[in-house]
Amino acid sequence: xxxxxxxxxxxxxxxxxxxxxxxxxxxxxxxxxxxxxxxxxxxxxxxxxxxxxxxxxxxxxxxxxxxxxxxxxxxxxxxxxxxxxxxxxxxxxxxxxxxxxxxxxxxxxxxxxxxxxxxxxxxxxxxxxxxxxxxxxxxxxxxxxxxxxxxxxxxxxxxxxxxxxxxxxxxxxxxxxxxxxxxxxxxxxxxxxxxxxxxxxxxxxxxxxxxxxxxxxxxxxxxxxxxxxxxxxxxxxxxxxxxxxxxxxxxxxxxxxxxxxxxxxxxxxxxxxxxxxxxxxxxxxxxxxxxxxxxxxxxxxxxxxxxxxxxxxxxxxxxxxxxxxxxxxxxxxxxxxxxxxxxxxxxxxxxxxxxxxxxxxxxxxxxxxxxxxxxxxxxxxxxxxxxxxxxxxxxxxxxxxxxxxxxxxxxxxxxxxxxxxxxxxxxxxxxxxxxxxxxxxxxxxxxxxxxxxxxxxxxxxxxxxxxxxxxxxxxxxxxxxxxxxxxxxxxxxxxxxxxxxxxx
Length: 504
Ligand SMILES: Cc1ncc(COP(=O)(O)O)c(C=O)c1O
Description:
16% strand; disordered C terminus; 4-stranded antiparallel sheet; pyridoxal phosphate; alpha/beta; PyrdxlP-dep_Trfase; binds pyridoxal-5'-phosphate; membrane; transferase; transmembrane helix; Aspartate Aminotransferase, domain 2
């Protein structure tokens, strides 16, 4: 009897322990109404095994991402809906309901600097880079709870410092940061902040040819009595050698369109536009440490659509003027954008940036390898020379792999290179867009793989035509020598005919 009693007590004790353990587990993982819950003691986020209000949004996001558009287009949550179906947005030269129809005669579009080449990286990182935005996410104008009423996320600031310190491309510690709607907004904020207000004459804004056209466009558009655009640095220097005038110089390094690492020509007030100063486009020789530097997410992670850039500023007064500009222009940058930027930067710094920059550099190098192989067979066209440089990030000497090919038409008579290429079904951007000669054309190398593959196809066709013509000429010379000029063979179409059509 006594033995049976003891046995019963034992079972009761064991059951009580098991029940307590189950209760504790339930308390931490299953209790409460939210999908994510903070453990009371250590404030760590504890994930519940099942979701509640995010499930519908997650299912919608996955359903639209699963629409393949034949790999030649994309469907987004905010794409058009037709007959209850999300409409595929097809890449250039592809059409049809699922983007499967290729237009054979279509021109390769190498015009815009849309950085879609990084899309496959983000698809690989789908799980790490997705965000869920609640309906009540940061409805306020400012980040409450921070020391001062701020419109900039301190966490985003932290990750911007982190990415620069990992890459080693800029000194940002002890510097002021200001966020902008893309770096585009910060370009004009910079001119405003550096111009001499209350002076009798406007500040002279200059850049070195070939230069990014936005500098001139903005300076003219925002038409102020405090600054005016004066064009090329070298001409300005020649014409104003003796004048002690106020100058603001844009230094684009690496340069758009030709990829060169630039330094200041005039010296004085400078705005370093470092949009492309990342290891996938250029070796990083040393951290930049200028008074005013501008960077953009567009060319770092490829998210041009997010519209996010940042300025790194040394001087407090200049910083305050730039902050004022942003506050007056738009009361700060969208909190939704900042949330997304934070998530993307967290992925970018994973593994000390190795994954993102290795992917991006490999992609750019492969494109440059294919490009140089085609141009090496041409005497009619040439591209910019690239010199190897030590890259502190990859810790080896590498060739730059710029975002754009700066193509030159070498034949004397082909002084409208855009027209020459256009006739060969290639759309680039004219040299005169950058105030250079129209003998030059910029070709974008950072668009989608479809765009790049078609560009390679069209370039190969154009160059092989040139070689066909050359071998025809050589054969003709041999025949002439042999037969004293008697020939009735038809020459291939002279490449010179391309390009003449649009000249008038
Ligand atoms: C040199 C340079 N600076 C600035 C920008 C603007 O970039 P975003 O406004 O997307 O940041 C670009 C865009 O192509 C650029 O090429």
